[in-house]
Amino acid sequence: MKPDNHVDPPNPAVLVLTPPNKERFWQEVGQGVAWAKYVWSGPTPTVVVETNNVYPGIQFSAQSIYEGIVEAVGRLKIPGIKVGRQAIHETGPFSPFREYLQIRRELSEFLVCAAPVGASYFVTVRTIDRFRHVKWFHYLILAAFLAGIAVVAMGAFGFTGAEVFVVLLIALAWSLMRFASYETASWLGEKLPEIPVIGAVFMRWFRPDTYFRQDLHSAFLALAGSAIAGVITGMDPTQPVRPATETHGGPILKDLHQPG
After folding, report:
1. Cα gap 127→220, rounded to integer Å
2. CA distance from start to end of the chain
3. CA-CA distance, 182 to 176, in Å (whole number)?
């Protein structure tokens, strides 16, 4: 299944055989630019709306719902789970935001949104898979990048100095990736997979999608998803309602839960 932002590559034959004064040539150039942007940014994460419940004429407390979900997920004692709040704006960066509950393990996460809509209420649960898969052209991009660095280094340090510089650069990158693969809870282990191109290569060689990782991923989705669904199913319309605010949730003060 293709991601939402998928862009097909340009047709090389059209670029080579079509004169620049033809509209078709510039259409293909635009296609090439769009494809290059897609290659750089990578596919959008796979997002699946698992639960979308609407409660007409009823109000709930988002704080109580989120706390109940955190407690239910915490009882599972699944290693590596991180739970916290995430503010997502409704439209632009200066628009009001809704406060989501994020339950994440490595590159898989749930986003729960509980909020009023007029005199009613809704609860939405999204499952997001942020795993990046490496493509053949990622290696070409890295090779071109290293070649550019080598040319610049050759002009500055000469051939031998450039050779040593590139080897040291590759060794440093290798060491950082090895560290990130072992320290997945570190800042580097969390942010490195999100870097365009480099993140996909890192996931392929240092944190591959093995059967064991797939099994843990499936178990996390099944167990945590069941716990979240159980809390939503047992929602009590008589629970106290926190006063509504213009931003639907107010400022984020701290995470609800952090693994010990």
Report:
1. 11
2. 38
3. 10
The CA distance from 57 to 83, in Å, is: 30
- pTM of full prediction above 0.70: no
Identity of the amino acid at 96: P
| Residue numbers of the chain with a pLDDT score lower than 70 | 1-6, 38-51, 90-95, 184-185, 236-260
Residue 105 bridge partners (DSSP): 81, 108
183 to 215, 216, 217: CA distances (angstroms)? 20, 17, 18
Q: Cα 159 vs. chain centroid, distance in angstroms?
A: 40
